[in-house]
Amino acid sequence: MRFTFLIMLALVGCAGKQSARDGKLFSNGVNKGIIDVRLVEASGLVESIANPDHFWSLNDGGNPSEVFLIDTLAEIKLVCKLKVRNRDWEDIALGSGPNEGKKYVYVADIGDNLGVHDYKYIYRFEEPSLKDGAEQTITHFDTLVIKLPGENRDSETIMIDPTTNDFYIVSKREKNVHVYLQHFPYPDTMRPTQVLKIPFTRIVAGSISPDAQEVLLKDYENIYYWKRSGEKIFDGTTSQGPP
Known about the structure:
The radius of gyration is 17 Å and the shape is globular. The chain has one helix at 6-13, and strands at 2-4, 31-34, 42-47, 54-59, 66-71, 76-82, 89-95, 104-109, 120-126, 135-138, 142-146, 155-160, 167-171, 177-182, 189-190, 193-198, 205-208, 214-218, 223-227. The protein has a five-stranded mixed beta sheet, covered by helices on one side. A five-stranded mixed beta sheet has the order 7-8-9-11-15, with no helix packed on it. The chain has a four-stranded antiparallel beta sheet with strand order 12-13-14-16, with no helix packed on it. A hairpin with a 5-residue loop joins strand 17 and strand 18 (214-218). It contains one helix and 19 strands. It is mainly beta.
């Protein structure tokens, strides 16, 4: 599988930092190598904090329950195994958690192609360090249950505001996808509220910049970019326009 960093650069670094509407495009993707076959269905990417110049990723549903740390050449450096089912893992994020001063990996089992699952799951564990070995079994983790309002929805995108730790889920298949918000600290059963509909569909990835001033969402063909314009990342005062 050819591994390019177009999506990586955009989603974790806000590369380009201008929208096509302004006549400026993102930087071109750079081919950095061929990814290991163990990441055959990579679905989600986030930059590591404990391991500089490395990135966390995972495979889509039906694959082994493993989280991978890769370097800037797309080579796997660490494999973390979780003793849970990979029902439909779709995204991964990094954020705060129960212990102040520590960062946690959030594995999002939120996919639901047929809309049949009443509950989705987030697996949260303290971010591992490469110094502790190239293969680790994660024995201490939290299972957060997600119950979205209304009908069951397929989702592939989670985002965490690095300044407030607010947690966002974006649905995938609607003509105008839904944005849901859960404030921090997160309860064991998260019941996010819908704060917005935006005129995009088939959203499969997203990210908030480290200073929380820029947001990206991606569908199959496009990456959408905008700068924060108000107090909230997503301004719920409108139900149709972008944030």
